[in-house]
Amino acid sequence: MPDWKAVLTRWLAERRVDQVDHGSVIEELSQHLDDRYRSLLARGIASTDAEASVLEELEGDGGNEALARELRRAGRTWPADAPILGVDTRSRWLGGFWQDLRYAARALWRSPGFTSIAVVTLALGVAANTAIFSIVHAVMLQPLPYPEPERLVRIWESNIARGWPAWSTSEPNFLDFRARTTMFEAIAASTGQTFTMAGSQGAEIVRGNRVTAEFLPVLGVLPAIGRNFTAEEDRPGGNVRVAILTHGFWERRFGSDQSVVTQTIALDGANYLIIGVLPPSFQWGSADLLVPLAPNPEGDRDDHRLTAIGRLRDGASIGQAHSELAAIAAALGEHYPESNKEWSVRLASFYDWLIPEPARRSLRLLFAAVGVLLLIACANVASLMLARGTARRKELSIRLALGAARWRIVRQLLTESLLLAFVAALAGLAVGAATTRLLVAYGPATLPRLSEARLDATVVLFGLAIAIATVLVFGLLPALQVSRQHPVDPLREGTRGGSGAVARQRLRSGLIVVEVALSVTLLIGAGLLFRSFWRLQQVEPGFNVATVMTARIRLPSAAYGVRTREAFIERLLSEIRTLPGVVSAATSSAAPLTAGNTSTEVRVPGVESRDGTRPSASWRLVSPGYFATMDIPLRGRDFSPRDVAESRSTVIISEAMARAYWPGRDPIGLTITPSSFGSRERTIIGVAGDVRSLGLDAEPPRTLYFSTAQLTLSATQLVWRSSGDPASHVAAVRDIIRRVDPGAPLYELRSMNDLRDDSFNPRRFNMYLVGVFAGTALLVAAIGLFGVMAYLVSQRTGEIGVRMALGADRSAILWLVLRRGLALSAAGAGIGIGLALGLTRLMQSLLYSVTARDPATFVAVPVLLVAVALAACYLPARRALKVDPVTALRAE
Amino acid sequence: MTDRILDRELKKGSAELLILALVEPRPRHGYEISQLIEQRSNGDVRFKVASLYPLLYRLERRGWIVGTWVEKTGQRRRRFYRLTRTGRKVLAEQRRGWHRFVAAINRITEVRHA
Fold this sequence. Notes:
Chain A has 28 helices and 22 strands. Chain A is of the alpha+beta class. Chain B starts with a helix and ends in a 5-residue tail after the last helix.
């Protein structure tokens, strides 16, 4: 009997059908041939004839190759059969994945226009979002660097009647709070103090913090080396000459010497025993070291200068703690009405204190801006995917018609989308990382913990997630619509597209309107910030900014009495004034923009009793010549030099003060009694121009100026004005100080210009970033508009050809295209203005001297946008003009 | 001559219907199907291996029939084809179409005798 299997194997091989894959086919067919052969033999046919007759079976009808063709078809498998050796199903699925991936890469590579625009658009969105998120994450979301930070509370005293909602605490008041509270595990106080430390390169300023013994336990910090202060070291008259170094200072000044404990450090000429070193994680302002505060129960209750903090008892709430401390404050008010009347307390969590509302508001604004940018990118990706889906409908339909499973096509689209998202995320994260570094380097000091912002795992995950979510939600869903269609429709539609194409084009137009609207909103926001910044730059600060230098100088208190200090300052100033190029020099307790507020009560005859509260004003101690040096206009006269008696009986007031209490009158020659510096009656000898000393965006405070001839402060601010660059005199001024007294350090050298820049910095940060994001949004929207218009032109090539053939002139064709782009962008601009009217009100607090409905911005932005939109439409319009009527019509 | 025409025409339009109808009552293997076609048409219609199996495989690929290897003691295992639910629907549809076709042909060709 013939070997039918061998016959079939040979037969299949001749037709290049892979026989191994079809083992069971051979088995089935050979049985059939065998049966046939046997039945022929049974009918008495000779074996050779029977064999020939059976072989004819394989010829088919008319020699067709139906069997071979059927067997060769891809995907013919025998699932229920014995598994085919050498291939396991799992690797086959993975193999399918790699095949999908390769196919996806090829598909994206084949349409570089689509791919690059989608990747760039999405990457920009991811970059902006990851950069801002990395900052939000570091500043707002990271837990504070203390154990159980939610139990830490900042405690202020407050006096609403005098307009001081959050004021520092006095030493006796702090001690009473500490003794009576039950809601806190412990409360502690600290206050900054600078020391002069003698060193090999002259005197050096060391920043210290005087803290109570509970300070480190409240924060939950243990010294890395040595020990904390004892109660004995933290009481007046105790052994207070001890110090704990911060880790950075220990490294810098002691070379990380482990045996530093038991050594001493000379601060302001006194020896302090080093008892400990803090861990590197400890952060508290810019302190170099801690020394005991030793609060004095006999101290002045009205002298508020302590920063009080506390750690809540387990289970106690901040509200309970507030009620308790407020009750204690009220009791103190009854007991010490002279100093404590009307004083209460205010509490805030560490989070609310350390990450203040303006910083959070700024980050919320930026996050909103990048969110809008991402939405625009989403709309663009959706629009691109729609266009691409349309272009691929035929390809997908053919594949469906050829029997591809629907899930297989969905999987293919999914792979393509994910590949796109992944590439965009990588590019976006790279740009985002660079942006984060830039923001950290140039961000404002008002953003706490900004330096900790970086692209960590959380941020990378965030970036990947938004890229993938964008592509899946805004890209893949429209694409899936395509796979749901009937396979035959697109094949029938021809090149121009039927009703489905019209609907899709309408959707794309809608997306463009959304993009334009969001861009307009963002641009208006940026415009308002820009206008605020511009207004701020126009503000008259009230003093010379261009050529004034400021520096702080500290005199070791042990070595100087008031008289010698004054003589020292006098000699210093006269020597500085002789420097070539220096116009004038003076001192002040605080130059504008350099320090916080100061306040004193003032008795103004006829004013104080009106509503029961006394007038108060900010104060400065200034040397003669200060107003001239700072270019502050002065009516009346300046203090005269070296006249102590006069300095005790005179005062100069600011114009704001004069306006407030002597409206329409000249106060020169009248008297007032400020409570600071001896509560003496003083004659007003001059009225100085208003100075925006607290910040250029803050109103000039009512200010009293006292003469330095009575000064008791050991640190003072030196200011000098030059005819040119004031910083060029720094070395010469240092020389003079070294000559006059090498023990007096000069520090915090800043030009007034730098200080002004610093005060602009938070606003500039917001403005630049929102501006950059708005610009990016505009670019992305323009790209989107360009894409839609180009597609439109390609769809209407035939129509344009007909119009040209019928004699339409070029301007009519140009208008045909531009009109459409203009309509879309005008609709978007209109919606955007509406959105902006609603949203910019939320940013009123970030604006300066500009309303949230600033007409100039609301007009300029849409005009700019329509101009950009026209530019984006111009290229496609040019292409429309180049349409050759003959070619266009032949394509029909 | 008529035999050849019948054979060709049947295969062209109705081969699917034949096979579906044959596996309707119970599952059958390929050889059995070819034998039944030959017997019931009195030898007028015959499918060779090269045309029968592509047809079976195609119907199976469409999910109208499904083939499974069945082993019976003392016999070689054989591949039996059984009608699926989809196949049953298709068969019903094709039957209706066929009856309408035959009726139409009859009406047209027999109009002379009316």
